């Protein structure tokens, strides 16, 4: 089942570092950021992870949980998380269930060959479990600040309600 902005997320469950299970209902009441990235320890993905790390306290203050998602296994994630001192958990989507559900698996050309890869994308889920924003095929510079701004908008709307 595909995801749609302004609709609840379909059911899913995934394992993350720290022995945590993440599902469509595990963080109700909290804003959730799911950022999908191609691979641990690659330049763009390292930069993106460090930017989320560096703004992590601002996300927590705004009431959001941050999760990175890639097809890497738990061992790779644990090492990546430790190396970069990431304060948030990483989801190991080794079977690509979440990647397909969120529609981030794309055909790419790498070194002249067609390969299946992950399109760098971020999804913002509201405290009600509804998908509020999506950013697809994004560029890393400035992106984390844009996501934080969107989280603060949700928080302001919630206070006004």
TrEMBL record:
GO terms for molecular function: thioredoxin peroxidase activity. The active site is at residue 45. Its EC number is 1.11.1.24. PANTHER family: AHPC_TSA FAMILY PROTEIN (PTHR42801:SF4), THIOREDOXIN-DEPENDENT PEROXIDE REDUCTASE (PTHR42801). Residues 3-156 form the Thioredoxin domain. GO terms for cellular component: cytoplasm. Belongs to the peroxiredoxin family. BCP/PrxQ subfamily. It catalyses: a hydroperoxide + [thioredoxin]-dithiol = an alcohol + [thioredoxin]-disulfide + H2O. It comes from the Bacteria. InterPro entries: AhpC/TSA, Peroxiredoxin_AhpC-typ, Peroxiredoxin_BCP/PrxQ, Thioredoxin-like_sf, Thioredoxin_domain. This is thioredoxin-dependent peroxiredoxin.
């Amino acid at each position: 089942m595909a995801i749609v902005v302004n609709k609840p997320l379909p059911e899913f469950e995934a394992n993350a570092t720290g022995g945590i299970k993440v599902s469509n209902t595990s963080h109700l009441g909290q804003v959730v950021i799911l950022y999908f990235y191609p691979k641990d320890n690659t330049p763009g993905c390292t930069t993106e992870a460090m930017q989320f790390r560096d703004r992590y306290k601002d996300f927590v203050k705004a009431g959001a949980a941050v999760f990175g998602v890639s097809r890497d296994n738990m061992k790779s994630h644990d090492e990546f998380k430790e190396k970069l001192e990431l304060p948030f958990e990483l989801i190991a989507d080794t079977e690509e269930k979440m990647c397909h559900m969120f529609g981030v698996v794309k055909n790419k050309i790498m070194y002249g060959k067609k390969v299946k890869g992950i399109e760098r994308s971020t999804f913002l889920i509201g405290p009600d479990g509804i998908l509020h924003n999506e950013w697809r095929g994004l560029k890393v510079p400035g992106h984390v600040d844009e996501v934080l701004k969107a989280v603060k908008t949700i928080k302001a709307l919630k206070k006004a309600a």
